[in-house]
Design brief:
The complex is a heterodimer of chains A (about 500) and B (about 150). By secondary structure, chain A is mainly alpha-helical. Chain A is built from 22 helices and 2 strands. Chain A has a two-stranded antiparallel sheet. The mean pLDDT of chain A is about 80. By secondary structure, chain B is mainly α. Classes of the chains: A mainly alpha (about 500), B mainly alpha (about 150). At the A-B interface, helix 8, helix 9, helix 17, helix 18 and helix 19 of A face helix 1, helix 2, helix 3 and helix 4 of B.
């Protein structure tokens, strides 16, 4: 079997002491920062990204992937113990996880989350290994028209998943696309929207944007209200789920894993959609559906498995098509570009070691999470009790150092400040930053592919619907948009997000 | 006409401002080209126009649909946090990591609810030692440690 040979190659790369070390550091750092309330994976990755600049590409990506899982895992810990989702995908974990903690069952809830995630991680790693190569082969046949339409679909999906107003989400995507165009135009060499500032020639760094919009804006918004948090620290006594718990969680974990793996592959999918869908499904099929929202262990097991599976399979579009399906993947693409790797189907054929090494390290990272985190849980809980007034100046120091080190120039920090301001305004006006980040990354790619497609078709825009694959993507986007624009579904969508908020 | 959705009203205005800015700036300064050979102004002006139109819709929506009011802006954390970052960036070279970190920590701490000098000072010392060890010694970032006048 090819898969096993490939996975063996990958394990060979991932298990070298150095890479293992990087994976470990990534997982630890990711959990460490992810556990801090109010710091999600996007902010965590953005903050820690500069650490990876000095590493070789493989080690850097392995470490980043580790940070991602770590942050995700840390997010569920916060959700269960403090009722504060560290990130949007652990929102549903709050519902039942926190209730379990209040009933003194924080231990089993945490263990369920960890074990469910690990199981899902193992399955999802196999899914990635199986589906990535054939998809990459298809992707190699993609022309500019197909790429353009696929990106349209990805952006539409991001809009669908955004909270609140549809129009505002679309506007944020377009704003992101526009901001992404700042800098030198590759085709003509013209400097666009640079206002004579030399530092703008290469455009605005996406790390700068992400740190401002997510990191800074979050800190400022958090400082608005005095935090009185109730942390269940002393009640975590026994970790291991009871026999009864095991009986109740295996099926939800399995269902969550399948659902998450499938939804993660979709553009715009990933951890958030997966965890929501899994919770809703579980609530429908479970025999204990009355207990949901009051501390049902299924309500922790299913979404946790699903979000981890989704988080992993969302690497598939990234690795095969070079297209990020969510904000975290947008950061990963940025990281790859900084390392001089053009994301896309050629990565697998040209740099098999990198590709398979990364996939294998996903599994290794998940294993580390379980092995480390269950014993270390006491330490993470201690971190939760650190007051925010200590945390945020520290986060600011690291963010400033990180952004400054991007090009050793105060200008980047200035830009981070401006985006922090924009981010804060967006929080106040209920405009989601996540679609904007996606647009920001895709802006130049979209323009490039649009230009090529139009050149090839001699200026005929019908090319996007005449090519079958491209037409498929466009039709899917239109259907998605129409569906959510329908009045009934609009209401339902609003309800879902109300529940979430 | 009464504004019913304050958030949408301002968001609409913001999007329109951004959209019109990109549209006009692109049209004035760069070449449009044609659909076959798109110039540097093509994509941004189309997107800018689209953004302005959507902004207009959001704006119109704010007169039709009732929405919540914009929550109060808290200027103290906003100003202090932004100031802290900028202070760090522009004093790192003259004052070194030791000086710049002091500025971030103290200024940002002033943006919070309570300011206990001893606690902040302790935090500062810990952060400086950590940053010097990890970033300058460990990751060999080319930052000066001490202020330039002390070197």
């Amino acid at each position: 079997m090819d898969i096993f040979a490939n996975l063996a190659l990958g394990l060979g790369v991932a298990l070298t002491p150095f890479n293992l070390m990087m994976c470990l550091i990534g997982v630890l750092l990711g959990t460490l920062i992810g556990v801090l309330p109010g710091v999600g994976p996007v902010a965590t990755i953005a903050m820690l990204l500069p650490i990876t600049f000095n590493l070789n590409p493989i080690a850097a990506l392995i470490m980043l992937a580790g940070i991602y899982y770590g942050a995700q895992y840390g997010g569920s810990t916060t959700a269960i113990l403090v009722n504060l989702p560290g990130e949007s995908s652990s929102v549903v974990t709050c519902l039942d996880g926190y209730q379990m903690a209040r009933q003194g069952r924080a231990g089993p809830a945490l263990a369920t989350a960890a074990l469910g995630s690990f199981f899902a991680g193992c399955v999802a790693t196999l899914v990635v290994a199986m589906f990535a190569p054939p998809l990459a082969e298809v992707a190699l046949k993609f022309g500019p028209a197909e790429y353009f339409s696929l990106m349209v679909l990805g952006l539409v999906a991001a809009v669908v998943l955004a909270h609140g107003s549809l129009l505002k989400a679309i506007a944020m995507v377009i704003l992101g696309l526009l901001l992404g165009l700042i800098g030198t135009d590759v085709n003509s060499g013209v400097l666009r929207f640079a206002f004579g500032i030399a530092e703008m020639a290469d455009g605005i760094g996406f790390v700068t944007v992400a740190m401002g919009m997510f990191g800074l804006a979050e800190i400022i918004a958090n400082l608005e209200h005095r935090g009185a948090r109730e942390v269940f620290t002393k009640k975590v006594t026994h970790l291991w789920p009871t026999k009864e718990d095991w009986k109740r969680i295996w099926a939800p974990v399995l269902r969550g894993t399948c659902l998450g793996s499938a939804l993660g592959i979709l553009p715009g999918g990933g951890a958030l959609l997966s965890s929501f869908a899994a919770y809703t499904l579980e609530k429908k099929v479970s025999r204990h559906s009355k207990e949901f929202g009051k501390g049902a262990i299924e309500g922790v097991a299913a979404p946790e498995a699903a979000n981890n599976a989704g988080a992993q399979t969302s690497f598939i579009p990234l690795l095969t098509l070079g297209i990020p399906s969510n904000a975290v993947m947008a950061l990963m693409i940025g990281a790859m570009m900084i390392q001089g790797i053009a994301p896309g189907p050629q990565v697998m054929t040209e740099r098999p070691q990198l590709f398979w090494g990364m996939i294998a390290s996903m599994w290794v990272g998940n294993l580390m999470l379980v092995v480390l985190n269950l014993p270390l849980i006491g330490m993470w809980i201690k971190l939760l009790t650190v007051p925010y007034r200590i945390l945020y100046p520290s986060i600011l120091v690291f963010m400033s150092i990180g952004v400054f080190s991007l090009s050793n120039n105060p200008f980047d920090v200035l830009m981070m400040g401006l985006f922090g301001l924009l981010g804060y305004v967006c929080v106040k006006l209920e405009c989601e930053p996540a679609p904007m980040i996606l647009g920001f990354i895709l802006g130049p790619l979209m323009e490039e592919n649009l230009r090529r497609a139009m050149l090839l078709s001699r200026g005929d825009p019908l090319t996007f619907v005449q090519k079958p694959i491209s037409a498929g993507f466009i039709i899917a986007s239109v259907i998605l948009l129409v569906i959510i624009a329908l009045p009934q579904l609009r209401k339902k969508r609003a309800e879902v997000f109300v529940e979430e908020a | 006409m009464k504004i019913k959705g304050q958030k949408d009203f301002w968001a609409g205005l913001m999007f329109m401002a951004f959209g019109l800015f990109f549209l006009i700036w692109a049209l004035l300064n760069y070449q449009m080209g044609s659909a076959v050979r798109m110039g540097p102004a093509y994509f941004p002006s189309v997107l800018g126009g689209l953004l302005a139109v959507i902004g207009l819709f959001v704006l119109i929506d704010s007169f039709v649909e009732t929405g919540s009011k914009v929550a109060r802006f808290h200027f103290r954390p906003l100003v202090m946090i932004l100031l802290a970052c900028l202070a760090f960036a522009y004093t790192l070279k003259p004052l070194g990591l030791v000086g710049a970190t002091a500025l971030v920590v103290f200024i940002s701490a002033l943006g919070g609810h309570e300011f206990k000098f001893r606690e902040v000072a302790t935090l500062y010392v810990v952060l400086v030692i950590f940053s010097v060890l990890v970033f300058v010694k460990g990751l060999t970032l080319p930052f000066p440690i001490w202020p330039a006048f002390m070197e």
